[in-house]
Amino acid sequence: MDKFTIEGITPLKGEIEISGSKNAALPLMAAALVADKPVTLKNIPKLNDIYTFSNVMRVTGARVDFDEDSRSMVIDPTNISYLEAPYELVRKMRASFYMTGALLGRAGRAKVSLPGGCAWGPRPVNLHIEGLKAFGAHIDMEAGYVNAAIPGDRLPGGHFELSPSSVGATINLLLAACKAAGTCIISNAAMEPDVVQLCDMLTKMGAQIEGAGTSKITVHGVDSLKGIEYYNAPDRIETGTFMIAGLMHPDSELTLTNCAPEDLGVFRDVIAETGGAIAYDNDKIHIKAPDIIRPVSIKTEIYPGFPTDLQAQWATMMTLAGGDSTVTDTIYPDRFSYVPELARLGADISVKNNTAYIKGKAKLVGASVMSTDLRASVSLVMAAMNSRGTSDVLRVYHLDRGYEDLENKLNNVGASVKRVAEQA
């Protein structure tokens, strides 16, 4: 099990290339299973979640070939015969539950383990299941598995309103619906760029989808979906993470390349309030840190609101701001496992209900801290880079799930991050 040993305090200066989106790549991979011919996906990041999901798909008989150098993946679904996603793989990553919609859409049957994933908070899949039922699937639970089947060759169709809106459920329902016999309507659908991109890929494959990017998506089922080549979008969460990191030291100046600024939603407006100089130039973002970070309180919301996947990083930056602030998470109220670890570094931060109360002007000092989930982990790395002395960030396997080549990207712009194998 690896750890990061980080020397601070280090300003960041230079250029970072943003990788392909993890959260978009996984649904695109699942969509390839519903095609009649092989699909080629470009700009796929080298991440543990990508490798895990590739193995989940291979269990079914799909062929998955990933060229790491070119970031190109070819998925051939033509020999899928085993319609099951086993617990030992699905437990590693929640997105594996997309196999339910993908296998239903392809073959009319699926047996998929209930998922695992990050170690914080309940994130039930009841919306996925109730939505599939509304579209005509028969579903029962057995020994931790979801058994789903279509009575007949194809889903009859129907209408389902998500409450609350859910990215994962929207994706699963789209995968199942695109080859339905009738029309499937998703109300209060997620509007995230990941969902819009999935709809775009499915449409290019031959699906008939209306309303992508709105709260109502209508899918008219088609008989077949063709294989295509498709380019994955840049990772908006990685983009936001490095934008925040570039503001945390007054001498930092970063340029981010291969970005999609239009996917950032209100985050663009909120981060401008910190006082940093941020300029957008097509697919590049230039960031110059302010002398003093202005305190800016945020509340997470569904897209285009402030992303829950950036709240830990934001709270970390706010510990260095020139005043007090709050971070409220309305999406996952208990997503604050990083707070005690930040306190070990010297942050003055407390949590009540779903809000973190942050005292600015912290003088962070190096310490040993423990990663608990993907986004919490990167927030600890960011804090360590702005702490005097040496810090150890333990259990960085969480980071390897969602940040491609993180230590090298940071070291190339002035950080001192060393990956060390921990002694057993």
Content-based structural category: alpha/beta
Widest beta sheet: strand line-up: 22-23-1-24
What is the radius of gyration computed over CA atoms, rounded to a whole number of angstroms? Answer: 22 Å
* Strand percentage: 25-35%
* Number of helices, where a helix is a run of at least 4 consecutive DSSP H or I residues: 14
Query: Which architecture name of the largest domain does CATH use?
Result: Alpha-beta prism
The biggest beta sheet is recorded as: 4 strands, mixed
> What is the β-strand count?
24
Uncertain runs: 117-122
CA(first)-CA(last) distance: 8 Å
Commentary on this structure:
The protein has 424 residues and is of the alpha/beta class. The chain folds into two domains: 2-19 and 234-421, UDP-n-acetylglucosamine1-carboxyvinyl-transferase, Chain, CATH 3.65.10.10; 22-231, Alpha-beta prism (UDP-n-acetylglucosamine1-carboxyvinyl-transferase, Chain), CATH 3.65.10. It is built from 14 helices and 24 strands. Strands 22-23-1-24 form a four-stranded mixed sheet. Strands 2-15-17-16 form a four-stranded mixed sheet, covered by helices on one side. β22 (368-370), α12 and β23 (389-394) form a beta-alpha-beta unit. α4 runs parallel beside α6 (167-177), α5 runs parallel beside α6 and α6 runs parallel beside α7 (193-205). The protein is elongated. The protein starts with a strand and ends with a strand. Residues 117-122 have low confidence and may be disordered.
